[in-house]
Amino acid sequence: MSLTPRERVLLTLRHQESDRVPLDMMGNATMLLDRTYLRLRDYLGLTPIPPVRSGTSANYYDARILERLGIDFRRLFLPENPATRLTHHTDGAYTDAWGIRYQKDGAFVNLAESPLRGAQSAREVEAHNWPTAGALFIPDGLAEKAKRAYQETDYALVARNPLTAGFLDRAQQLMGMAEFLTALALAPEVAHSIIAHLLAIYKEVYAMFLDAVGPFVQMVEVADDLGAQRSLLISPAAYREFIKPADRELYALIHEKAPHAALFRHVDGAIYPLIPDLIEVGVDVLNPVQTSAAGMNAQRLKATFGDTLTFHGAIEKMEASPEELVAEVKERIAVLAPGGGYVLASCNHMIDVAPENILAMFDAAREYGRYG
Questions:
Q1: Domain count, the chain
Q2: Domain of residue 311, CATH code
Q3: Are 8 and 72 in contact (CB under 8 A)?
Q4: Over the stretch 36-46, which tens digit does the pLDDT of each residue have?
Q5: Domain that holds residue 71
Q6: Mean per-residue pLDDT, 245-250
Q7: What is the mean pLDDT of the chain?
Q8: In whole angstroms, what is the distance from residue 361 CA to residue 348 CA?
Q9: E strands within the chain?
C-alpha cells in the first residue's frame, strides 16, 4: 500500500495504521534554528532563499529540504502586516508590536523588557497599547494560495501557529515571568485582565487566518508552555482558573472555523496531570511529547491517551551520536506507532544539530516506520 502524504496523515489522525508513520519538520516547535538550517542547506548543496520571518531564532522555511526528507506536511503562514515593523535599537535589541523588548544572544532571542512589569491594576492593563489583529497580520491572497496548495499538491496542510506564544507564555513576556506568576496568587484581577485582552486578540487573529485557510487545512497549530522538566509551571488549579477558560474559547473558535482539522497543541515538559484538561478543551494532537520529563513515559502516554490523542514529536537525541539517535527513532516507533496516532518529529526545535544527524533521523524513520 502506497499512500499520498495527506492520506497517510489523515489515517494517522483517525488512529488508523497507514503505510508508514508520517514525518514532520519546520512547524511549531520543529523548526531548524538558523545556524542549523544554514548548515543543512549548504550540506545539501541548495541555493540561498529569503527567510519567511524575522526577529526569531528560526526564520527559514525551505520546502526543498522537506521534499528531500520525505516530510508529509506543508505549512501555510499568515503573513505579517508589513506596516507593523519591529523597532530596532542601537544596542541590537528590538521591540515588537506587543511592546516587548528582546535582545539577541548568540543563537537565541531573550526577553529584555516587559511593558506591564509593575502593573498593579486592571486599569493599567487596559491602558497598555494592545495591538489589533489587523495591525499584526494581513491575509491578502492567502485563501487563493491555500486552495491551490490543496488542489495542486497531496501534502497535509497546516495552519502554522501565527502567534508563537500562548496565553501563559505571552502574559509572562508582557509582565515578566516572576511578576505574572505572583499575580496569579496575589493580583488575580490583573492576571485575568491580561488573559482577557490576549484572548480577544487571539480570537481575531485565528478568525482572520481560518476564514482564509480553514476549508483546506488538516491541522491547526497552537502553543503554550505549561511544564518544566520535573513539574508544572503553575498548579492545576491555577491553570483551570486562569488559562483553561481562554484555551476552551479559542479552541472552540478554531474547531468552528476548521471543523475537519485536528488541533495541534505544543506544550513542553512534565504536563501529564493536565493532559485530560487539554483533551477536554479540544486538543487532538499533543506536541512535543517530551518523554524525558517527569511522568511523560512513552508507554504510559500511549496506554492512557493513545485512543484519544495523536502524539507528535518525541525524538530528543538529536545532538547524540547517529547510532543513539537511530536507536531512539526505532524505540519511539515501536511504542507510539501501533494502531496509528503517531507523527515522528524532533522534540522541539533543532538547536545545534549536525546535517548528518538530521538525515539519519528521517532516513531511519522511513525505514523503520513502515506498517505491516
A1: 1
A2: 3.20.20.210
A3: yes
A4: 999 999 999 99
A5: 5-368
A6: 98
A7: 96
A8: 14
A9: 73-76, 87-88, 94-95, 101-105, 108-113, 156-159, 219-223, 262-266, 285-287, 310-315, 342-346
